[in-house]
Design goal:
single chain; about 90 residues; mainly alpha; 4 helices; about 50% helix; elongated
Length: about 90
Amino acid sequence: MTITLDLQPDIERGLLAQAQAKGVSLATFAQEVLAREAKAVQPPPRLTGTGQDLIDACAKLRGLLTDEEVDTLFSRTPSFSRPVDFE
């Protein structure tokens, strides 16, 4: 892939100085910087499975609370509609 960048003169001078200090061309230095940055930002791992792992992880908790206790602890608070002004 070829990329063309229009750099401000002060940025170009800074990058060129760093490249020269490393003894490489500006193109090589830019490629190293981009490769390093690409490795630094890894996409999050994709979640796979059917949910059985979660069911198995929660198996230890089964039976600790009655159905009524679960309903009391995790019941939803009723939410009533409120007027909204979109202006």
